[in-house]
């Protein structure tokens, strides 16, 4: 079964110029496709701090004793 033809759903290799008759009506928040989640910042910060602490522990763990 072939998909129905629709002027809005053109293939990439369609040589016709796009029509701008029906502009998408979308708010900037909807266009972002997401919402700001501040927990991501905490996860990234804690993860980065943990990696730094682990690297410091490895450095001092493998350094020769004086």
Characterization of the model:
The protein is mainly α. The chain has a domain at 38-66. It is built from 2 helices and no strands. The chain has helices spanning 28-31, 39-62. The longest helix is centred in the last third of the chain and has 24 residues, at 39-62.
Strands, count: 0
| Number of continuous helical runs | 2
Poorly predicted regions are none
Distance between termini?
77 Å
Percent range for β-strand residues: under 5%
Structural class by helix and strand composition: mainly alpha
The largest sheet is: none
Shape: elongated
Radius of gyration: 26 Å
SSE topology string: HH
* Average pLDDT level: 76
Query: Which percent range fits the helix content?
Result: 40-55%
Feature tags:
66 residues, mainly alpha, 2 helices
What is the fold's blueprint, element by element?
Blueprint: H1 28-31, H2 39-62
What's this model, at a glance?
With 66 residues, the chain is an all-alpha fold. It has two helices and no strands. The model has no long low-confidence stretch (mean pLDDT 76).
């Amino acid at each position: 079964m072939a998909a129905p033809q629709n002027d809005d759903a053109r293939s990439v290799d369609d040589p016709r110029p796009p029509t701008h008759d029906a502009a998408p009506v979308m708010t900037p928040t909807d266009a972002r496709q997401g919402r700001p989640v501040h927990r991501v910042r905490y996860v990234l910060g804690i993860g980065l701090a943990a990696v730094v602490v682990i690297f410091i522990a490895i450095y001092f763990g493998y350094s020769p004793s004086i």
